[in-house]
Design brief:
oxidoreductase activity; globular; Rossmann fold; single chain; 5 helices; NAD(P)-bd_dom_sf; six-stranded parallel beta sheet; alpha/beta
Length: 213
């Protein structure tokens, strides 16, 4: 009997999350729980579900993917950003992954792979030095990086990592982005499937390379 794995993906109605669903559905070994802010409007996701032959099961979650994120401040800077924009960005980019993981940690711990993936960005890497712009977004991703570090330290029996999918051609990435979403997501999934327990607490890019903090 083929081993099956359960993936839980937030922000699955568009962009990176939707492409993850599409690629994961190509393997019969994957069972996907796709979360969207407004399922009624997620027409493309609904179409995929109708043709997926999905089954309702009570299982552990092998891979919990915290993908939902926002970039509300655009190219703001530390001295120009609005506090309410920073607060809303934190609520989604940091509070969201924290609460989702807390809610589903019991199901993750019951699974075989026991993996939590927080989708971050190299913009949140201090060592990568992306300059002054996109401050509210970068600050939130730096905070997400620390959250991931803390989760990995608290639960050493889990594999908890960060992934940067690259600058992708999505609504968030914008028209100037350099990579098709399929390329970034393909690299992310390849890296996730090759993870080992000792990788926990690591920040990877979509090419499977380590990203400096």
């Amino acid at each position: 009997m083929t081993q099956e794995y359960v993936w839980f993906i937030t922000g699955a109605n568009r962009g990176i999350g939707l492409e993850m669903v599409k690629q994961l559905l190509q393997s019969p070994a994957n069972i996907i729980v796709a979360a969207a802010r407004d399922p009624a409007k997620a027409t493309e996701l609904q179409g995929l579900a109708e043709n997926a032959g999905g089954k309702l099961r009570l299982l552990g979650i092998d891979y919990l993917i915290n993908n939902a994120g926002v970039m509300l401040g655009g190219e703001d800077t530390a001295f120009s950003m609005y506090v309410d924009v920073l607060t809303k960005t934190f609520a989604t980019n940091v509070g969201g992954p924290a609460l989702v993981t807390q809610a589903f940690i019991g199901l993750v711990e019951k699974s075989e792979k026991k993996t939590v993936v927080n989708i971050s960005s190299t913009v949140g890497s201090i060592a990568s030095d992306f300059g002054a712009k996109a401050a509210s977004y970068a600050i939130s991703k730096a905070a997400l990086n620390m959250l991931t570090y803390k989760e990995a330290k608290e639960k050493p029996d889990l594999t908890v990592i960060l992934m940067c999918p690259g600058w992708l051609q999505t609504d968030l990435g914008g028209p100037d982005a350099i990579l098709p979403v399929s390329v970034g997501v393909g690299g992310v999934l390849k890296t996730i499937l090759a993870l080992k327990p000792e990788d926990s607490g690591t920040f990877f890019n979509f090419q499977g390379q380590g990203v400096p903090w």
